[in-house]
């Protein structure tokens, strides 16, 4: 179908050149995509789970076979380094389709209940079965920082459960999502089961959220947009899964392995150039280690190569756009005005083209500064000192967000004790690594619901109870 608004250019953030042209859909076309998903739902939801799993398995193989060209496109759209595009974008997407290419039990017995005789009938033993059923049509609104792994994490479990989907990719990098849809079609996904609608007009996104054909919205993005989506969903009681912003606290105690802490915190500078909600951007350093940690983080940041993501030794690529670069730079300047000290970065890298931001470290910060409270979504880390465990935990929990926090300590018992006190959906103990079967989601303004692993099958399903006399 030809897009009503023609096509718009997709820009390489490293070169500022046009990567390709994306369809500019109209709200009417967005609603038509939702209607197509509704029409396809009946037949797809009735397919055997084994058939759906086989389709997802074929999709995983196709994506792996096309990894290099898919990753080249992702790198050009997002500015990610080649290694990141291959391993963490396309590679993770293939792994997520493969993860849901297996059939898991969708029903389980409930303990029988003995009922005494009463107004509802005679005495009886009632058996029960809990059954996972598909929700229906799921709108997936995805983030720009990972146009492969993020949509795959929504589409794969949704399809596995028998739902149909409408995907609204971020306007900055939608071309990769179209490649994913092509791979799914080649794997045997029937027409109407997966629909992609792209466009820069906010009205397009609003249409795929508000459509009466949609039963659920799965969104990854900012808390501000998430609140707006939740308001729309609330009017029609649509199911929601929200992965929103983060301001990850990293507590570093005096007995921590500083090398491990610096390497983990340093991923904020390098991984997607800090454009990731799980980044440990708010470092809380115990006073006995504060100065050494600041010094080592500054040297780490200064040693990272910023530049062309196609170069094999580049560690930090660009941020997504000129507008976002200006936003990140404004936060750095705000940090200076608030009283933080720029000990690394702070100046625009000397590149003629591209939306580059230098890895920046703000020391001497306080938890009430805006740079310590608001999500910057760039390669910027703030460091705040604390005295003892109680103060560190209090500072960590003094946040609007609660997605992923981190604890570095040589005392494992203390690290786990502190982890349980943190108001966050996830806590990394001496690591920034993820277990891809562990539930993922946030407290407070960081989101609603959990996904990943078997938790995603719950997220994209409704639970039905079937009761009968024993």
Automatic annotation (TrEMBL):
- Looking at the record, the residues that make up the Aldehyde dehydrogenase domain are 5-466
Annotated Pfam families? Aldedh (PF00171)
Q: Does the keyword Mitochondrion apply?
A: no
Q: Which SUPFAM superfamilies match?
A: ALDH-like
Sample GO molecular function, one term: oxidoreductase activity, acting on the aldehyde or oxo group of donors, NAD or NADP as acceptor
Which keywords are on file for this protein? Oxidoreductase
Q: Where is this region: Disordered?
A: 1-27
Q: Which family does it belong to?
A: Belongs to the aldehyde dehydrogenase family.
In Swiss-Prot or TrEMBL terms, this protein is called Aldehyde dehydrogenase
- Species name: Streptomyces capoamus
């Amino acid at each position: 179908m030809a897009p009503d608004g023609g096509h718009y250019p997709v820009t390489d953030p490293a070169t500022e050149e046009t990567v390709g042209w994306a369809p500019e859909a109209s709200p009417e076309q967005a609603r038509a995509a939702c209607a197509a998903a509704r029409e396809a739902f009946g037949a797809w939801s009735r397919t055997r789970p084994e058939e759906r799993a086989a389709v997802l398995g074929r999709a995983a193989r196709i994506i792996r076979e096309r990894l290099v060209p898919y990753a080249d496109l992702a790198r050009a759209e997002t500015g990610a380094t080649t290694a990141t595009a291959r391993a963490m974008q396309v590679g993770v997407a293939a792994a997520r389709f493969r993860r849901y290419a297996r059939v898991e039990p969708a029903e389980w017995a409930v303990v029988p209940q003995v009922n005494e005789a009463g107004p509802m009938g005679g005495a009886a033993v009632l058996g029960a079965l809990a059954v996972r059923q598909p929700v229906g049509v799921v709108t997936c609104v995805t983030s720009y920082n990972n146009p492969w792994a993020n949509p795959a994490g929504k589409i794969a479990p949704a399809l596995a459960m028998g739902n149909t989907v409408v995907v609204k990719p971020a306007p900055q990098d939608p071309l990769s999502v179209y490649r994913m849809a092509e791979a799914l079609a080649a794997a045997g996904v029937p027409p109407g089961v997966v629909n992609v609608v792209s466009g820069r007009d906010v009205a397009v996104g609003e249409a795929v959220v508000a459509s009466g054909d949609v039963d659920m919205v799965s969104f990854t993005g900012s808390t501000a947009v998430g609140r707006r989506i939740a308001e729309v969903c609330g009017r029609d009681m649509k199911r929601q899964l929200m992965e929103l912003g983060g301001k990850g606290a990293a507590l570093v105690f005096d007995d921590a392995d500083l090398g491990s802490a610096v390497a983990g915190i340093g991923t904020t500078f390098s991984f997607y150039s800090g454009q990731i909600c799980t980044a440990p951007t708010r470092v809380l350093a115990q006073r006995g280690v504060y100065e050494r940690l600041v010094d080592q983080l500054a040297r780490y940041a200064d040693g990272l190569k910023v530049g062309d993501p196609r170069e094999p030794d580049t560690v930090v690529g660009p941020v997504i756009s000129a507008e976002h670069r200006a936003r990140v730079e404004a936060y750095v300047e705000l940090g200076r005005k608030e009283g933080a000290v720029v000990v690394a970065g702070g100046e625009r890298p000397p590149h003629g083209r591209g939306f580059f931001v230098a890895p920046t470290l703000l020391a001497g910060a306080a938890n009430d500064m805006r740079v310590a409270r608001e999500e910057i979504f760039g390669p910027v880390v703030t460091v705040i000192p604390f005295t003892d465990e109680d103060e560190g935990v209090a500072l960590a929990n003094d946040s609007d967000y609660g997605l992923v926090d981190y604890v570095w300590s040589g005392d494992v018992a203390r690290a786990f004790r502190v982890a349980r006190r943190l108001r966050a959906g996830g806590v990394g103990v001496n690591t920034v690594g993820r277990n891809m079967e562990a539930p993922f989601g946030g407290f407070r303004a960081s989101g609603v619901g959990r996904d990943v692993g078997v938790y995603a099958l719950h997220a994209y399903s409704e639970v039905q109870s079937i009761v009968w006399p024993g």
